[in-house]
């Protein structure tokens, strides 16, 4: 097999790529996750493994930090913040071990899907064209969450 020559990209492709990139918002993933938590209460679906109903203060921030670390495969060190009690390493380890389970993940995912169904785009039937044909462990198809405005209180995880 011989070496293949690189094809030059046409100027129209480069221009289209630049135009498309300009349309996409720059969103901090941690802020987006915390914003979705504020809108949906998805962290409420994460219950302690002992089924105790007591909730630690600012637990939703800890849950979102652990979810982000696992989803991005970056580890807890990347979301740890020593000056914020909800983001200290011990607290994050405790949340990871006590709250993050398949059943709680499925319930949180279902809450996101239910929230998406309330959005105008979904009500107009436009969502049906981009639903992902995958099994998320739910009785209905899962769709990617829609972009949400960035909440100003979300910068804590990135710190």
Q: What's the layout of helices and strands?
A:
Elements: H1 11-23, H2 29-40, H3 59-71, H4 89-98, H5 102-116, H6 120-123
Helix pairs in contact: 2-3, 3-4
In brief:
The chain has helices at 11-23, 29-40, 59-71, 89-98, 102-116, 120-123. The protein is mainly alpha-helical and 159 residues long. It is extended and about 60 Å long.
Written overview of the protein:
With 159 residues, the chain is mostly helical. The chain has one domain. It contains six helices and no strands. It starts with 10 loop residues before the first helix and ends in a 36-residue tail after the last helix.
Number of structurally distinct domains:
1
Q: How do the SSEs run, as a string of H and E?
A: HHHHHH
Largest sheet: none
The level of helicity is 40-55%
- Which structural class fits the helix and strand makeup? mainly alpha
The 3D shape can be described as extended
- Number of extended strands: 0
Oligomeric composition of the shown chains: single chain
Number of helices: 6
What is the first-to-last residue Cα distance? 50 Å
Mean pLDDT over the residues: 80
Low-confidence stretches: 128-159
Strand content: under 5%
List keywords for this structure.
mainly alpha; 6 helices; 159 residues; disordered C terminus; 42% helix
